[in-house]
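Entry for the shared binder. Reason: the reviewer on the internal report wants the predicted structure included alongside the sequence.
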Amino acid sequence: MARERDEPPPEVRRLAEEHAFGRYVRSGDAPWFPKTCAGCLVSGVALSLGAGLLLHGDQPAWAVAGATLGVPLALLTATGLLDRRGAQRLPRAHCFEHGMVLATGAELAAHSWQRLRPFEWVTGGYRQTPVHHLQLRTLDGQPLFEFGGEVGWAAELVAADELPRSLQLLDQGSPVNFGRVTLTPEGMVVDGTAVPWPTIRRISSHRDRIDILHLTARGELRATIPCQDTPHQRVLLTLARSHMPE
């Protein structure tokens, strides 16, 4: 969950000032369900099974099995629901204009946006509530932090920091890499294939993929790139659309 009005602790502000991260924006928490609720959910299912065995078992052995499963798991479930210490240890990202301070318990670590790569995608199939993911990875591809809840504000914040830098490189004639897609002054290079700007008809993002529609000698061709392979998706889309023919 992102908390727009929360003020970061003084030690977080001091660390951000040391790294010239600029103005404080918001803080965001990591998703808590996978780490704190999964065990409770499994325990709850097993508890139901145990209770059923205890109430409906015809043989003494079934009753013993029901009690054996149900009572300890009831204690586990109650402990998991009431104990918030695990949630307090989950990482929290205090976000500033040019970077974040990642707090894990009492440990603080400063990371500039320039040294991180954001990856965005959406999960959730038919009739399921879509879940928007924003994962930050290090330059060598290691996952560092994933935002929970509404993630659009954080994605926009990171994109606002990166866009001027990428635009300047492109204007200077340098290629800008976005994973399997590279932008150049002449066009895109998609999985090693050059696609000139005049031939590109559309680039769009669809939940878990990016589609690039372009013309070839054989007609229209669609290239598809997974979002989880594409860092700085918002910057890529903005720059590409600004260079495509109108």
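Summary line for the report: The longest strand covers residues 116-123.
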